[in-house]
Design brief:
By secondary structure, the protein is mainly beta. It has one domain. The protein is built from no helices and six strands. It has a three-stranded antiparallel beta sheet, with no helix packed on it. A three-stranded antiparallel beta sheet has the order 4-5-6, with no helix packed on it. The radius of gyration is 15 Å and the shape is elongated.
């Protein structure tokens, strides 16, 4: 969870996606945001960098053949802003 109260979830089986929950409860997720579409392990790591900023780390790789240019570990810095229009639904 970021210091601004936004909960972050990164996931993937091959593709990498990120969702956030501005309520911080884990009950009201945004639509998934695609970050990477391609081969990889699907393993991710999320690291808070500031009150509303985080780093997502993932790999682009193939388990069966060499990629042109090799395998890569990628880091992306993203921002999860909480605005006045963010009114999550009450918990059920």
């Amino acid at each position: 969870m970021l210091d601004n109260g936004v909960l972050i979830c990164a996931f993937g089986t091959r593709d990498i996606q990120v969702m956030c929950d501005v309520s911080g409860t884990g009950h009201h997720w945004s639509a998934p945001l695609p970050i990477y579409r391609g081969q990889g392990s699907g393993y991710t790591d999320v690291q808070a960098l500031g009150a509303d900023t985080f780093r997502l780390v993932y790999d682009e790789s193939s388990f069966f053949e060499e990629h042109a240019g090799g395998h890569r570990i990628v880091r992306v810095v993203l921002q999860a802003l909480k605005t006045e229009s963010d009114h999550p639904l009450p918990d059920r």
